Amino acid sequence: MFVELQKDGSKTNRFSVNLVERPSKVTLEPSGDQLFLHWDATVDDSDRLRRCIICSGDLYRERAFPQITGVVIVLAFAGAVAGIAGFLTTWVMFSAMIFVLLLDVAVLIFNKPRLVCYACGAKFKETPVSPHFHPWDQHHADQITRSKS
Ligand SMILES: [Zn+2]
């Protein structure tokens, strides 16, 4: 699993960790600092994350490229309009459509879900995501903000 730490909305440090070996501490890159991890009740029986291993906070599921579907729709629409208006030859339009289709398929294949911590914002990538996680929820985020203050 690959973990990215967040501070004030920007990436700070990162580390990779083995969910089966569960080391008690890791060395951060690029700072070189040591970070202690919480393994108590944060991983389930199938070695999948249940809670944040940094702060024990709740997690939500996130897609790596949430905006790409909109881009593909706009590209396809622009291509269709240009084709109808006669700005493009059939061959160019056909190539563009194939390109958009390939882009869409690539996104479907490579857009693996990842987990993000509500409390500390750490991102957990390249790890199996248990199906019970929900996408980001405003209500839940508000509850956590309230309980922290
Ligand atoms: Zn956390």
Indicate the percent of residues in helices.
Answer: 25-40%
Q: Which small molecules are bound?
A: zinc ion
Q: What value does the Rg take, in angstroms?
A: 20 Å
List low-confidence stretches. Answer: none
Structure annotation, total helices: 3
What would you note in describing this structure?
34% of the residues lie in helices and 21% in strands. The protein is an alpha+beta fold. The protein folds into two domains: 2-63 and 113-148, no CATH class; 68-109. The strands form two sheets. It has a five-stranded antiparallel sheet with strand order 2-1-7-6-5, with no helix packed on it. Strand 6 (113-117) and strand 7 (123-125) form a beta hairpin. The longest helix is centred in the C-terminal third of the chain and has 21 residues, at 90-110. The chain starts with a strand and ends with a helix. The structure holds zinc ion. Zinc ion is lined by residues 52, 54-55, 57, 117, 119-120, 122.
In brief:
The chain is of the alpha+beta class and 149 residues long. The protein is built from three helices and seven strands, in the order E-E-E-E-E-H-H-E-E-H. Helix content is 34%, strand content 21%.
